[in-house]
Specification:
The protein has helices spanning 14-25, 33-41, 50-64, and strands at 3-5, 8-10, 74-77, 81-84. The chain is of the alpha+beta class. The chain has a single domain (3-84), classed as Winged helix-like DNA-binding domain superfamily/Winged helix DNA-binding domain (Arc Repressor Mutant, subunit A). The strands form 2 sheets. The protein has a two-stranded antiparallel ribbon. Strands 3-4 form a two-stranded antiparallel ribbon. A hairpin with a 2-residue loop joins β1 (3-5) and β2. The longest helix is centred in the middle third of the chain and has 15 residues, at 50-64. It is globular, with a radius of gyration of 12 Å.
Length: 91
């Protein structure tokens, strides 16, 4: 399975892909950091904490956003977590 931005394939690690799918499957819904940590690390041996999650979200934003410093897709909701702010397009 591949992810695309502007009809170009974007390289994602396994964890970035899991994070992207989690966001897209919960479009417009605020996801708490703890919920994201559980979903992304499920079945993985790696240790994750909030700092690690922040790094993965930054990397994912760098890949999917046109302007990662002003995100339109992965939006931070202060005090709540993060939200995928776009409708899911499937081709």
């Amino acid at each position: 399975v591949k992810a695309y931005k502007n009809h170009e394939s974007i390289p994602l690690t396994n964890l970035e892909y899991k994070l992207l799918l989690t966001f897209m499957m919960n479009a417009h819904k605020a996801l708490k950091r703890d919920d994201l940590l559980m979903k992304v690390s499920e079945g993985e041996d790696a240790f994750f904490d909030e700092n690690t999650l922040s790094v993965y979200i930054k990397r994912l934003r760098d890949k999917v956003e046109d302007d990662p410093k002003n995100p339109q897709f992965i939006v931070t909701q202060r005090g709540l977590g993060y939200r995928w702010n776009k409708d899911v397009n499937r081709e």
